Amino acid sequence: MATNRSGRSKSKVSRKKATRRAGAKATPDAVALLKADHREVEGWFEEFESTRSSRRKQELAGKICKALEVHTQIEEEIFYPAFLEATEDKDMHHEAAVEHDGAKKLIAQIEASSPDDDYYDAKVKVLSEMIKHHVKEEEQRGGMFAEARQSEMDLKVLGEQLQARKDELMEKPGKPRAGRGSPRSLFNGSRKAAAAVTGIR
To answer: Which of 71, 80, 115, 138 is a plausible cystine mate for 54, CB 3.0–4.6 Å?
Structure first.
């Protein structure tokens, strides 16, 4: 049987490639992926509210903060620039970016404290309320996700990009590296990527 330089058979390599292609087909589109993130974090917030264990609270808060950091980063790096490029809806884009900024500040406070802090539960609760509001703005009829679906954005390709970046960030220990600059500079830096997804230049 023919082998490649690493000694693996060509048929095994082909099977792996086919499996990867099959996995890529299963990737949800961008909106479905972002909504799934929302549901996951909502579940953790609910569990946080119902638990009395300080250790479990710290564990859940850590999961929530990490997931939200990754979620906001992939939105700012990939989804928001493509959305702005395709829709030119600056108001909706800018409001979402400002909401992210507020959430990030509270996440940093939660990560710097512990359940021993008298305000710990209150901070997580306020973060939960902020995220609920943000999710409603994105998911409601006439919101960002609905507008994205009506635009020329290629949500399937965008979903693959979001999933790949999410996987990369989730594998890294600690805090995801923040994007450089403001949401505006993120948009400018991602113009080529957004054009590739939307077909608009």
So the answer is: 115
